[in-house]
Design brief:
CATH architecture of the largest domain: 3-Layer(aba) Sandwich
CATH superfamily of the largest domain: P-loop containing nucleotide triphosphate hydrolases
Bound molecules: adenosine-5'-diphosphate
Number of strands: 10
CATH class of the largest domain: Alpha Beta
Number of helices: 9
Strand content: 25-35%
CATH topology of the largest domain: Rossmann fold
Shape: globular
Strand order of the largest sheet: 6-7-8-3-9-10
Number of domains: 2
Helix content: 25-40%
Structural class: alpha/beta
Length: 244
């Protein structure tokens, strides 16, 4: 019998919108606790792959994370399996503090509203997440007045306290300052020590600096895969990027 692949395993993924093939039979494997960058020109199908994994769009093919089959499951079922994503625009509760945002996320993960429970101190998983996302000092700051970068980190923190084991991040550094980008790169590599991370990325400088392994998509298919140096040296990749 086949050994179970512990990470994310996608086979022959297809997504068709009204006859238009957005993803045309993609295979993708990301080992557990590794980090993979998905790059490619606009319209390559990167976000659609994330949408398919999280159940937002209909797809064919198979999507597995460890022993869990994600294909055919609904958005909330997939979320409950510990698969979390961020969007290009952070979706945090602006009026609530950093701590309250994390509390709500932790509560949603456990199916209870811990926020409503009166208790002293910060729960351990929340304290850990605050430390990882470097927002410990902003504990009581309303999320609405955080910088753009800090909001993205808070959103990632919300996935951490939900105990997401697979995180899919859609252009996490878009709109960030240079320092915020570097901090995010370090944050992602730290998270990838204990979770599997897929990063859709547009920013080539960021990718060069922080990516370990990269999958390049083009027009809904996989164009190239390997280390940053390997994909950058691939004539097929050069052609697509120069031809833009
Ligand atoms: P990327 O993230 O690589 O820029 P997308 O996955 O967003 O690319 O889009 C891939 C292709 O699918 C694009 O041509 C886009 O216009 C198309 N597409 C994405 N979502 C939809 C949709 N809901 N309906 C129709 N076409 C879509």
């Amino acid at each position: 019998t086949d050994q179970i692949f512990a990470g994310l395993k996608i086979r022959d993924l297809k997504v068709v919108f009204d006859g238009f093939v957005a993803v045309g039979g993609v295979d993708l494997e990301v080992p557990r606790n590794d980090i993979r960058f998905l790059i490619g020109p606009n319209g390559a199908g990167k976000t659609t792959i994330v949408d398919a994994v999280t159940g937002l769009v209909k797809s064919t093919g198979t999507i597995e994370f460890g022993e869990q089959k994600l294909h055919g499951k609904k958005v909330h079922q997939i979320a409950r399996m510990g698969i979390g994503r961020t969007f290009q625009t952070a979706t945090v509760f602006e009026e609530l503090s950093v701590l309250q945002n994390l509390d709500i996320a932790a509560g949603a993960g456990r199916g209870v509203m811990t926020m409503l429970r009166k208790r002293k101190g910060v729960p351990e998983e929340v304290a850990e997440a605050l430390d990882t996302i470097k927002l410990t000092k902003q504990l009581n700051t309303p999320a609405g007045i955080l910088s753009h970068g800090q909001k993205q980190w808070l959103e990632i923190g919300m996935l951490l306290v939900q105990d997401s084991k697979l995180l899919l991040l859609d252009e996490p550094v878009a709109g960030m300052s240079h320092d915020e980008r570097d901090a995010t790169g370090e944050l992602l590599n730290e998270i990838a020590g204990t979770r599997t991370v897929v990063v859709v990325e547009h920013d080539m400088d960021f990718m060069r600096k922080f990516a370990r392994s990269v999958t390049v998509l083009h027009q809904g298919t996989k164009l190239s895969e390997g280390t940053v140096a390997e994909v950058q040296g691939d004539p097929k990749v050069q052609e697509v990027y120069l031809g833009q």
